[in-house]
Amino acid sequence: MRNFVEELKWRGMIHDIMPGTEEALMKGTTSAYVGIDPTGDSLHIGHLVSIMILKHFQSCGHKPFALVGGATGMIGDPSMKNAERNLLDEATLAHNVECIKAQLGRFLDFESDAPNKAELVNNYDWMKDYTFINFTRDIGKLITVNYMMSKDSVKKRLSRDSSEGMSFTEFTYQLLQGYDFLYLFQNKGVTLQLGGADQWGNITTGTELIRRTCGGEAYALTCPLITKADGGKFGKTEKGNIWLDAARTSPYQFYQFWLNVSDDDALKYIKIFTMLPKEEIEAIAAEHAQAPHLRALQKKLAEQVTIMVHGEKELQNAISASQMLFGNATSEALRQLDEQTFLAVFDGVPTYEIPAEELPCNILEVLAVKTDIFPSKGEARKLIQGNGLSINKDKMADPNYELGQADIIDGKYILIQKGKKNYFIIKVK
User: Fold this and answer.
1) Average pLDDT over residues 204-231
2) Distances (CA, A) of 116 to 2, 59, 63, 277, 373
3) What value, to the nearest 5°, has the Cα angle with vertex 285 and ends 280 and 291?
4) Catalytic center residues
5) Residue 405 class from Cβ within 10 Å (0-12 exposed, 13-18 middle, 19+ buried)?
6) What is the pLDDT of residues 270-309, one digit of tens each?
7) Of 44, 152, 317, 336, whose CB neighbour count within 10 A is largest?
8) Strand 389-391 with 413-418, pairing
9) Can you list the positions of beta strands (E) in 158-204?
10) From residue 325, how far is each of 231, 346, 392 by CA, in Å?
11) Confidence (pTM)
């Protein structure tokens, strides 16, 4: 059994830790859980820190529980929020839970016969029949309003514009999360809750409930909220979140996100978001320092996270797609791209539309009359004769070529490359 706390420390993954936690973990196999709010049907990379903590927990010999908040997701956690969220109906939450469960299976061992195999639990299972009267009698009486008001998540919300305020529904959230910890402590032997730094107040409410209810010893550990070196929000791009669902964020876009992080962020992220050992990370960092322009850290980071989330095949597809713009990609590789990846690779490229019935058509007519890729047929002919034009990554040498159905990719697109870096898309409708 490896030292879980020591592992997290060198990776920079501990923000707060309750006294006695490390000692308790070293006594033997321990059970811990992370709560995940199922407000969407996909996790995004903002969830990855907590998931990686559970993954490290399991790799150190302990038993992880992933709690999907089917009940608490109906209320909404006020932590770090400026306004109350919309409440989701039961059917939507059930769908979200199933999708999240499938994604978690890429990180945690749920299926083996190992004694520390992961378990997924849903707090809706124990909250759905718990009446309001019984909950307030059993749990509400144990925690004072003064105690609840002292939590940062409550104080910050109440200190803002009084017109926003905080509903009673959200105010009770920490009691519900605290009860989750108590329930798992009593029924699953869970003695540790893990989470982001913004969850410290909710987690310690749970340890307090356990102490007051049965005199039990329970512990808390939180990880830092991840930031970018330039102060920007981690995981956000101009187009929004980076999702783990390939339908929302393609593996190519996912790979590119990690590939394009700064040097400072790459060194921090490779410790947090991969399972690479310390010695290997130090070796890659030293290699990167010798030749930063080769981006060894970013390449290894992007490789490891993409494999973990999407698999080896999608990594190779993403690398192949990445070579489309700047590498020696082939026509065959281009035609193997799915439409989502094709559009992601050539995002922002000037696009023209041609009706399908106008094909076949002479290449010069297409380039200079039906589109304005070239100002004249003469200029188009000159570049073709100079071996400077490619159609779908194949060099075009014949100015009399008839562009036709065989040139259409995925039934819709023709890629024109003018020189080394200028791309154009013809969409056939």
Assistant:
1) 93
2) 14, 9, 4, 21, 61
3) 130
4) 39, 44, 47, 81, 85, 177, 198, 233, 236-237
5) exposed
6) 999 999 999 999 999 999 999 999 999 999 999 999 999 9
7) 317
8) antiparallel
9) 190-196
10) 30, 8, 12
11) 0.85
